[in-house]
Write a structure and sequence with these properties.
By secondary structure, this protein is of the alpha+beta class. It has three helices and five strands. Strands 1-2-3-5-4 form a five-stranded antiparallel β-sheet, covered by helices on one side. It is globular and about 35 Å long. The protein binds adenosine monophosphate and zinc ion. The site of adenosine monophosphate (AMP) has 13 residues, from loops.
């Protein structure tokens, strides 16, 4: 059965969330696209020539909880990632949703990493 999102994570802005602050314009970021539901900005510590974060404006802690509560917004995130890849002229790229600290998640506001512009190994590390 689908797990209910925790109430404090139910799409409301979180005072202690870095990405909510970027969405609100309280912390600067290099924006590359913005829609009603999504913001895309350059990662501050890029791991590839193109490394852009695509995030929902709504706060959910990870991609799966966003999908459970707002599937249309998760689709918006993926569509915008594809639009950004086109703008960046990437014919190959990777979209990554780190989920959980053991997988490298450090910001608990759902975000897609769009990575490209170099060869990408498989399997990932
Ligand atoms: P993750 O480790 O998957 O949670 O991804 C969080 C990402 O956010 C990392 O790749 C960081 O480099 C990036 N990041 C952290 N702070 C900022 C910031 N102020 N602006 C842009 N990217 C950031
Ligand atoms: Zn947030």
């Amino acid at each position: 059965m689908a797990q209910e999102p925790r109430r404090e994570d139910g799409g409301e802005p979180q005072d202690d969330c870095l990405f909510c602050k970027i969405v609100a314009g309280q912390i600067p970021a290099t924006l590359v696209r913005e829609t009603d539901t999504v913001v895309a900005f350059r990662d501050i510590n890029p791991q590839a020539p193109t490394h852009i974060l695509v995030i929902p404006k709504l706060h959910y802690p990870d991609a799966a909880s966003l999908a459970a509560a707002e599937p249309g917004v998760l689709a918006d995130v993926l569509r915008e990632a594809g639009e950004v890849a086109g703008e960046e002229k990437l014919d190959s790229y990777r979209i990554v949703f780190n989920t959980g600290s053991g997988a490298g998640q450090t910001v608990f506001h759902a975000h897609a990493h769009l990575l490209g512009g170099r060869g990408l190994q498989w399997p990932p590390g």
